[in-house]
Design brief:
Strand content: 25-35%
Distance between the termini: 38 Å
Number of domains: 2
Helix content: 10-25%
Radius of gyration: 18 Å
Shape: globular
Number of strands: 20
Oligomer: single chain
Order of helices and strands: HEHEHEHEHHEEEEEEEEEEHEHEEEEE
Structural class: alpha+beta
Largest sheet: 8 strands, antiparallel
Number of helices: 8
């Protein structure tokens, strides 16, 4: 059962839905129960609340049906509560460009809602802004781990994700809920990274996945479950192998459970994604976006250590 305080926190402290606004809940047949819980609460705030239930999309980053994308263009506040992510879609980008405030909850489960939503959003916003200020003008960011990660990124002209800390109170604001990451789409990167804890769609990993990267493209993936991953990437095409994101977790209540929505928000982790990077102002428009979580990283920003073995310094 979903805790009403968690739903209340989303509408009152995150999205700040008003009685004179319109609200849209997009959910699917796998997440309909959660979607309807948020729908019933939103109705108490504004009668101009609508819910749409779709079939699950095939992959994270795949577009919703055209009629749903059309509805999204004309609603003030939106929750996208689906089994596969709609964050990195043209439908979401076009809706936020029109001024919609959107929170996405891909693969959400009741336990995540109850544990991670009822937080101090103002505090998280402040911490996210601090990290954003450190990263946004960086020349280079290097991530290393004892398990074999050693990769260097350039930020370039990337837009940032998560810098608002889940406070979506202005036109065009968007992000995940639960929130708790600051992320960008690298201009390029080179090196090796080792995903040691969880990967989108694979859950908790029994053994690590190792990625070799040259000029921003993954050239090799090895590990026990690499075949499953390469099959998904190959289905989306060669552009799926582009390194699309580097993010750093900040949610004080998140823990690693095998669900990427929460795992990537855990303090003391970073995550690296492949595929679509259009949400960061870039142009790799491919219908897939898959994150992998790395624990105990050391993060250097222009030679300055901001995290050592998963501890902020």
């Amino acid at each position: 059962m979903i805790n009403e305080n968690a739903i209340k926190a989303v509408f009152e402290r995150s999205l700040k839905l008003q009685s004179d606004e319109t609200c849209l809940i997009v959910t699917d047949t796998e997440k309909e129960g959660i979607g309807r819980a948020f729908y019933e609460y939103a109705l108490q705030i504004t009668p101009e609340t609508e819910i749409i239930v779709i079939s699950p999309t095939e992959e994270h980053g795949a577009e919703p049906p055209c009629e749903v994308a059309g509805k999204m263009l004309n609603k003030d506040v939106q929750l996208l509560i689906t089994s596969k992510s709609l964050t990195h879609t043209a439908a979401r980008r076009e809706a936020t460009a029109r001024g919609a405030r959107i929170a996405t909850m891909p693969a959400i489960v009741e336990d995540i809602v109850n544990r991670c939503m009822d937080i101090d959003y103002d505090k998280l916003r402040s911490e996210s802004q601090q990290l954003y200020q450190v990263l946004k003008n960086a020349g280079s960011i290097r991530v290393t781990t004892a398990s074999g990660t050693d990769i260097e990124f350039s930020v370039g002209s990337s837009d940032f994700f998560g810098k608002d800390g889940g406070v979506y109170d202005y036109p065009g604001a968007y992000g995940n809920l639960p929130e708790g990451e600051v992320a960008f789409g690298p201009e390029t990167c080179d090196g090796t990274y080792v995903v040691d804890v969880s990967f989108c769609g694979l859950g908790l990993l029994g053994s690590p996945l190792t990625f070799k990267v040259k000029s921003g493209m993954v050239t090799d993936i090895s590990g026990e479950r690499s075949g499953e991953l390469k099959e998904r990437l190959d289905k989306a095409g060669p552009k799926a192998y582009l390194v699309a994101e580097l993010g750093i977790g900040l949610n004080p209540k998140a823990k690693v459970i095998g669900n990427i929505l929460e795992d990537e928000k855990v303090i003391g982790t970073v995550h690296i994604a492949l595929g679509n990077n259009c949400s960061f102002g870039r142009d790799n428009d491919v219908p897939i976006h898959l994150d992998g979580v790395i624990t105990k990283p050391t993060v250097m920003v222009d030679g300055r250590k901001i995290m050592a073995d998963g501890k902020f310094v």
